[in-house]
Amino acid sequence: MIDISQKEVWFVVGSQELYGEETLRKVAEHSQIIAKGLDASPSIPVKVVYKDVVKSPSQILDVCLAANSAKNCIGIIAWMHTFSPAKMWIGGLNILKKPLCHLHTQYNAEIPWGSIDMDFMNLNQSAHGDREFGFIMSRLRKKRKVVVGHWEDERVQKKLGIWSRVALGWDELQNLKVARIGDNMREVAVTEGDKVEAQIRFGVSVNGYDSSDVTKHIEKVTEKELNDLLGVYESSYNLTDSLKEGGAQRSSLVEAAKIELGLRAFLEEGGFGAFTDTFENLGVWKQLPGIATQRLMADGYGFGGEGDWKTAAMVRALKVMCVGLEGGTSFMEDYTYHFTPQKSYVLGSHMLEICPSIADGKPSCEVHPLGIGGKEDPARLVFNSPAGDAINVSLVDMGTRFRLIVNEVEAVKPMAELPKLPVARVLWDCKPNLEVAATAWILAGGAHHTVYSQSLTTEYMEDFADIAGIELLVIDEKTTIREFKDKINANEAYYHLFQHGL
Ligand code: MN
């Protein structure tokens, strides 16, 4: 359900008329070669489309207007091969709504020592042309990514790839509809927030539905659909004996399959890319959706438990960002701790809804009591997750702004089997360590719900925060509590000023 095949970034090159035809012809020629090179890069997941060399305020305005209205254009990569007096860019940049990446590069990599002359210098002057461009963006307080280096360098292409992926996630949010099935878990604070402000800021629309809206679809499920899906369960997962045909708990699996089919039909009919539910508002559903939600997430849907629409939207956005990359992305919750004098860990999980995209093998499909909600025992997929680097991401509403909190973690193999734990789980080591990470997270007001991603890094989230114009707090190897507190205080002042039109 994630299709990025038509998405493109535009490569826009700035110059000016005074260089004359010959130089401008070369600028265009070089720009096309660079655009082709970037388009062919395996690090950049979208098309890179060469646009004209822009040489006047009206041409610049036109390309920005066109980018705004082109549905498939997810952002602009801009580069000044020559000098492009930047007052010409004010009109265009002022109205540009799409993300912008400033590629500070040069056509040639090395100086041709033996042949360099003034003609060469006139043509290859991005070293100062891009600084003029940088000034006007800073003067306009325009957030953008700056990538420096030769365009053929893999590191440069990887950075452009990261930004392109974030622009894809941003583009997705502009059209994303989140279905909030049932309201919030009663009295919970952090999963609430300003949905109007979220739509203004991120584009995402969040609207409420009742479980009965899904029940209508559950009632329409045919015998064939049901049997086909049960067949998929049987071939994709290790079913416990009691869930196999004729088993004592088979009816629970059948019920879970009906809920999946109904939920899927509801989401497809409404064009939703993400959803929430809550165990307190399940209406006549017999179980809390477990395997259904897990499989929908694996197919790319965003999800947040207990009405958590912010995390649902972020799960979806991050799934779009990492499409085609190794590793998975899931809804997650810091669940319980493993404290030892040497090192401490977090066991992350949820009641049921962890995405099998982060599973370390074939999940087992099991039915167990839930313990809360007063419904029948739900079916769920149970698995461990592989060791390796990951991030936990939380978006919270601070009342006057949104804050994005990121903690870099390293997942580790659990020290022992967990034979009685009936949920999917991940054990991780927080950077710099649990004591500092959890202190900082709590001081930042980070939620218990997160998006856990094995594919993405902090750099993606930094680009995302810049595009969205929101606050970012990172907890990594270098975090110290004293500096983190100062950062929070400084940000309070910064965002107060920013809101009043800095
Ligand atoms: Mn929860």
UniProtKB/TrEMBL annotation:
Top-rank taxon, per record: Bacteria
Essential cofactor(s): Mn(2+)
Known catalytic reactions: beta-L-arabinopyranose = L-ribulose
The L-arabinose isomerase central domain, residue ranges: 177-323
Domain L-arabinose isomerase N-terminal: 8-173
InterPro entries for the chain: Ara_Isoase_C, AraA_central, AraA_N, AraA_N_sf, Fuc/Ara_isomerase_C, Fucose_isomerase_N/cen_sf, Lara_isomerase
Domain L-arabinose isomerase C-terminal as annotated: residue spans: 328-471
Cell cycle keyword on record: no
Cofactor note: Binds 1 Mn(2+) ion per subunit.
EC number annotated for this UniProt entry: 5.3.1.4
Enzyme class: isomerase
Listed pathway(s): Carbohydrate degradation; L-arabinose degradation via L-ribulose; D-xylulose 5-phosphate from L-arabinose (bacterial route): step 1/3
Keywords noted in UniProt: Arabinose catabolism, Carbohydrate metabolism, Isomerase, Manganese, Metal-binding
Binding-site residues, Mn(2+): E306, E333, H350, H449
Any Pfam family the entry gives: Arabinose_Iso_C
GO molecular function terms listed in the Swiss-Prot or TrEMBL record: isomerase activity
NCBIfam families per UniProt: PRK02929.1
Family recorded in the similarity comment: Belongs to the arabinose isomerase family.
Record's function text: Catalyzes the conversion of L-arabinose to L-ribulose.
UniProt name for this protein: L-arabinose isomerase
Organism: Flavobacterium anhuiense
